[in-house]
Amino acid sequence: MSLWYRTDAPTYEAKRSKSIIHPFSVKGYGGLTINPYQGCQHRCAYCYATYEWSPDFYDKIYAKSNAPEVLEKELAAWKGDTIDPVMVASATDAYQPAELKYGLTRKCVQILQKYNAPYYVFTKSSIIERDIELHARYSRNCLVVWSITACSEKVRRVVEPGTPPARRIYQAIRKFADAGVPCAVNVDPILPLVTDTEGELDAIVRGCRDAGVSHVFGAMLRMRGDIWERMKAVLALLGVESAAERYRQLYGFKEPLNASYVSCDRQYANNILDCLKEKVRRAGMSTDFPDHMGPKKIDRSSLGQTTMLSYT
Ligand code: SF4
Fold this sequence. Notes:
single chain; 312 residues; TIM Barrel; 3-stranded mixed sheet; 10 helices; binds iron/sulfur cluster
């Protein structure tokens, strides 16, 4: 696995996929997901998706060039009358810079809309602004969830060096909220001793409220062997190497960490998450996932018609 903390641009390569829509399950929650890309230029040190894909996850981005066509075929042949909300995307950021070159996410979203499939986009990019009109005309059936982990630029530059600053994300959210698109923020992962301070959580919640976010939720970092190696480097770069021992206590492991996943101490995590919820409620926002995101009747009335796919 390459280090996340590099400034080199990744290389891009197109590849073809046999299937695009897949079921997923995380912490007891399941649904459907599409990933138009493999790999991610956002280079988050805590990224959970690095395990599942290539060892050059941050440095080589594969574009699934036939993703829109495959998605259309899969939806046309969908078994059943309803379809669950589709997560765009679970193992990559669908609006990372590669999207400006390939436009696969935009095309896939157009296909989802054609079949009346509900979807929620998870992103930490401002590139999604290009598609604001596309999402706005489908606002009853979609949700955009921005992932914001730190308002501190010192922390963001180390932890997720390929992402825009939080203030830039809040500008994008404001535009979407003003256009009537439901907007949520996922404060995930919260990094113990790095982003779980009162000041950092206050700054995130304040930014959400001012940008017009309606729902804010979050989760503590889950630890895994490769993530721990990167997190030790994060702590060193931030000048808090001494926090490493506290991490080993909070996650209950000894070096080397081989376990697939370990969770943060329950009481510590609950204190932080309760604190976040309290701040969100006091700011007049909801801590739940929006309930307009449920299964919808799939619409095949335009079957056989060509989908007009466009980048603009
Ligand atoms: S944006 Fe998501 S997929 Fe991309 S590196 Fe960060 S956590 Fe991983």
